[in-house]
Write a structure and sequence with these properties.
The protein is α/β, with parallel strands linked by helices. It has a single domain, classed as Alpha-Beta Barrel (TIM Barrel), CATH 3.20.20. About 30% of the residues lie in helices and about 20% in strands. The longest helix has 16 residues. The protein binds iron/sulfur cluster.
Length: about 270
């Protein structure tokens, strides 16, 4: 892992994500190195051309005292959108913790999203926020398969334990079932495993992009060759996602869950 320190001009930036006003990315790059990652485009924008996603990390340097938490009153603020706030190196560099310490008085609605059990370290801070929710993203309950698709992240079983601990500490939680791998993501089993300590569910489909298609197909071929025809078919018939959405909707309604479906456009997914 190549680590650099880069001075950031700002640490809270406006977001293009629907329903999120601002994002905070304490690092550039992501040690989790998910094979489907949509944030790889950051390589082009951050002087890392020729390097591999998951093999470099820029620790942003910034005078965190200059942050103005009151400026975000009533806005939604997400940590993080193109990295994970609880990367293994967060233990050493503490950027996420330093940022949260400056934000505790904010009247913004803060949303934390991670694939790391390290998130429990900051429960003491979360408890000081007026309006915060903490979520994990998860595609599968299979720890071995997760290692193949998200090699640097915590095991799904550990993410679930972390979420439970956070909920037990009185903090609002959510489970982001994402990305939804056709035929592999057993969303009902994930819900069953998390329902007693999850306040809200959201769902996002797997988005195929030119840069990630070969990697995804390779992993499916090696682990679930029986589903390969479904993945190939998805290139032509996007109706598959409508059926998945309907299944999710029916199940969540039946279970009376608080949920959002955030299937989006792009690649050859639903359009
Ligand atoms: S955790 Fe998110 S940002 Fe990091 S590699 Fe995975 S998908 Fe990309």
């Amino acid at each position: 892992m190549k680590v650099n320190f880069r001075e950031a001009k700002s640490i809270v930036t406006k977001s293009n994500i629907p329903s999120i006003d601002y994002v905070i990315n304490p690092y550039t790059g992501c040690q989790h190195a998910c094979i489907y990652c949509y944030a790889e485009f950051m390589i082009r924008f951050t002087n890392h051309k020729g390097e591999k996603w998951g093999e470099f990390l820029d620790v942003k340097t910034f005078d965190f005292d200059k942050m103005t938490p009151q400026k975000y009153k009533g806005k939604r603020l997400l940590l993080s959108s193109v990295t994970d706030p609880y990367l293994p190196l967060e233990k050493k560099y503490l950027n996420t913790r330093k940022i949260l310490e400056k934000l505790v008085d904010t009247e913004a609605e803060v949303s934390i999203l991670t694939k790391s059990k390290l998130v429990t370290r900051d429960i003491d801070l979360f408890q000081q926020f007026k309006n915060i929710e903490v979520g994990i993203s998860i595609s599968t309950l299979d720890d071995d398969f997760a290692k193949k698709i998200e090699r640097g992240a915590s095991k799904p079983s550990d993410r679930i334990i972390a979420l439970k601990e956070i909920s037990n500490a009185g903090i609002k939680t959510y489970t982001f079932i994402s990305p939804f791998f056709p035929e592999i993501t057993d969303f009902k089993a994930i819900i069953k495993a998390t329902q007693s300590f999850t306040n809200q569910y959201s769902f996002e489909n797997l988005n195929f992009r030119p840069h990630n298609i070969p990697r995804i197909i390779k992993v499916i071929n090696a682990n679930y060759p029986q589903f390969l025809p479904v993945y190939e078919e998805l290139k032509k018939d996007r109706n598959y996602w409508n059926l998945v959405e309907m299944d999710i909707r029916n199940f969540c309604e039946k279970e009376n869950l608080n949920y959002k479906i955030e299937f989006h456009h792009g690649g050859f997914s639903k359009s």
